[in-house]
Amino acid sequence: MNLLRDLPDAGASEITDALVAHPGLRIERIVSFGQASPEGFWYDQDEAEWVVLLAGAARLRFEDETQARAFGPGDWVEIAAHRRHRVEWTDPDQPTVWLAVFYR
Question: Is 80 helix (H, G, I), strand (E, B) or coil?
Fold first, then answer.
């Protein structure tokens, strides 16, 4: 299998594929194509998350930071449980592919 080949069409909405799921661990591939979090929406997750951007470009915003962080291929971040964050922007001209690892 290849995370960057045969990508689903995410033109209408972001696509999340669960790759691995075990108690306390979940790994997902997320494909975005110009999507962003709705205005005023913040993720507030019970799990910690480690996420890496594999392709495309995005901006991720944390509630406790004044500026959004720009992400390109290879950039990653660890997000503590309940650290509020949102996707401010993903590239509308090419797929943005994330690999997200959720854990407790």
Answer: coil
Element (H, E) at 22: strand 15-22
Residue (of 100, 96, 78) closest to 31 by Cα position: 96
Residue 104: both structure tokens together: 């407790």
* Contact yes or no for 45/28 (Cβ under 8 A): no
**Distance between CA atoms of residues 39 and 103, nearest Å:** 27
CA angle 90, 50, 42 (to 5 degrees): 55
Say which residue the tokens 């080949």 belong to.
Answer: 5
Q: What digits encode the pLDDT tens for the residues 63-94?
A: 999 999 999 999 999 999 999 999 999 999 99
The pLDDT of residue 1 is 87
| pTM of the shown model | 0.95
Residue 76 neighbours by CB under 8 Å, 6+ apart: 50, 51, 52, 53
Distance of CA 59 to the CA centre of its chain: 10
Residue 12 is given by DSSP the state S
